[in-house]
TrEMBL record:
<feature type="domain" description="Transposase putative helix-turn-helix">
    <location>
        <begin position="1"/>
        <end position="43"/>
    </location>
</feature>
<dbReference type="InterPro" id="IPR051399">
    <property type="entry name" value="RNA-guided_DNA_endo/Transpos"/>
</dbReference>
<dbReference type="Pfam" id="PF12323">
    <property type="entry name" value="HTH_OrfB_IS605"/>
</dbReference>
<feature type="domain" description="Probable transposase IS891/IS1136/IS1341">
    <location>
        <begin position="181"/>
        <end position="287"/>
    </location>
</feature>
<feature type="domain" description="Cas12f1-like TNB">
    <location>
        <begin position="318"/>
        <end position="384"/>
    </location>
</feature>
<keyword id="KW-0479">Metal-binding</keyword>
<comment type="similarity">
    <text>In the C-terminal section; belongs to the transposase 35 family.</text>
</comment>
<dbReference type="Pfam" id="PF01385">
    <property type="entry name" value="OrfB_IS605"/>
</dbReference>
<keyword id="KW-0815">Transposition</keyword>
<dbReference type="InterPro" id="IPR010095">
    <property type="entry name" value="Cas12f1-like_TNB"/>
</dbReference>
<keyword id="KW-0233">DNA recombination</keyword>
<keyword id="KW-0862">Zinc</keyword>
<dbReference type="GO" id="GO:0046872">
    <property type="term" value="F:metal ion binding"/>
</dbReference>
<dbReference type="GO" id="GO:0006310">
    <property type="term" value="P:DNA recombination"/>
</dbReference>
<dbReference type="GO" id="GO:0032196">
    <property type="term" value="P:transposition"/>
</dbReference>
<dbReference type="GO" id="GO:0003677">
    <property type="term" value="F:DNA binding"/>
</dbReference>
<dbReference type="Pfam" id="PF07282">
    <property type="entry name" value="Cas12f1-like_TNB"/>
</dbReference>
């Protein structure tokens, strides 16, 4: 199986300047290649592809010995392939009838990753293997950078990326042939219902609280954003406030990831079969559609209430949690089943009666046919488990 490892980099001041220059030069290469494609098609109707632009890299590097030539040739090819994937996704969306989204030029804050496609070609993981206390990674044009390696790397390192997140730098290793680590069987299975009031509720009645990390830091974030709005664009003070806002968002993101990892680890450790809803978070958090009133204005559409719900859903991080749960379940040899969430909160887990009136409130479920009373989330989790077992039996048959 394939797995990615993310480690914090500890660059010196000169190395940090070199890493920033590496990102800027790769960003300029990306933007120049995009402009090349746009101009060639607009002026001459010629479609420029990755092979054409990759063949021009040699002359680009020769003309800029103190700039583009400092960096690995293969990393620059990876940047051009990144642009090629953006165009491929653009044409795929056109064929599918979705909003196309033409590839855009990247500003300074929108290009924060550079990839080296092969360990040993312009980069080297564990570049000083005989060092007694520290791990280093080497990048062409930057040098040996110390790595805060907090866990052992398994498998074969295939690609290496460097990533900037605010004022922090990270190295990302993509490894193949990572051995799975199956956990002992528990012969237990559960269905999980995800919500806002409770982050996860199991079919056995266990509730896992929603940490609400964004709400906890909302005061600090609002103060930083208001201070940022008062700063003059391009000023040194504004750059400091941008870094402050980014640091707060980074802390919230790390807290959310930590909670998701711990919750997923607990579920994978305790259950052999886990059934969850196949949630489409992107559609669930889509903005409410405007309602024209026919007189040049718009009628109320509940957008304010919907935006609050969207914020709570995104703060809970359902999509991140499900991705982490999937990876951990695969590594541990657990079975993960996704089911259609339709009517799971309206259906009685005892008699199967489905009606909107069964959901009395956010927390209470009372069946109008058999009188079954339960916590609404526990009832939904039991329905999810039943649907998952039925799907599992149909597949086995």
């Amino acid at each position: 199986m394939r797995r990615s490892y993310v480690f914090r980099l500890r660059p010196t001041r000169h190395q940090e300047i070199a890493l920033a220059a590496c990102l800027d030069d790769h960003r300029e290469l990306y933007n120049g290649a995009l402009e090349h494609r746009r101009t060639a098609y607009r002026k001459a109707g010629v479609i420029v592809r990755y092979g054409d632009q990759s063949a021009e890299l040699k002359s680009i590097r020769a003309d800029d010995p103190d700039g583009q030539a400092r960096w690995s040739f293969s990393s620059q090819q990876a940047t051009l392939r990144r642009l090629d994937r953006a165009f491929a996704a653009f044409f795929t969306r056109i064929r599918a009838g979705r909003t196309p989204g033409f590839p855009r030029f990247k500003g300074r804050g929108w290009f924060n990753t550079v990839e080296w496609p092969k360990d040993g070609d312009g980069c080297r993981w564990n570049s000083q293997p005989d060092h007694p206390t520290a791990t280093y990674v080497r990048f062409q044009g930057v040098g040996h950078i110390r790595v805060h390696q907090h866990r052992r790397v398994s498998g074969t390192v295939k690609t290496i990326s460097v990533k900037r997140a605010g004022s922090r730098w990270f190295v990302v290793l993509s490894c193949d042939d990572v051995p799975a680590r199956p956990l002992p069987r528990t012969d237990a299975m559960t269905g999980i219902d995800m919500g806002v009031a409770w982050f996860v509720t199991t079919s056995e009645g266990m509730h896992i609280a929603n940490p609400r990390h964004l709400l906890a830091d909302a005061g600090r974030l609002v103060g930083a954003q208001r201070s940022l709005a008062r700063k003059k664009r391009g000023s040194k003070r504004r750059r400091k406030e941008v870094a402050r806002v980014a640091a707060i968002h980074g802390k919230i993101r790390r807290q959310r990831l930590d909670s998701a990892h711990k919750t997923a680890c607990g579920l994978v450790r305790d259950y052999d079969v886990i059934v969850h809803e196949a949630l489409q978070v992107g559609k669930m958090t889509r903005r409410a559609r405007p309602l024209p009133d026919g007189r040049g204005g718009f009628s109320p559409n509940g957008a304010a209430a919907k935006s609050g719900l969207n914020r709570s859903i995104l703060d809970a991080g359902w999509g991140v949690f499900l991705a982490i749960l999937s990876h951990k379940a695969e590594s541990a040899g657990r079975e993960l089943i996704a089911v259609n969430p339709a009517n799971t909160s309206r259906t009685c887990a005892r008699c199967g009666h489905c009606a909107a009136d069964n959901r009395v409130s956010q927390a209470e479920f009372r069946c109008g046919t058999c009188g079954h009373v339960a916590h609404a989330d526990v009832n939904a989790a039991q329905n999810i488990l039943r649907a998952g077992l039925a799907l599992r039996g149909a597949v086995a048959a």
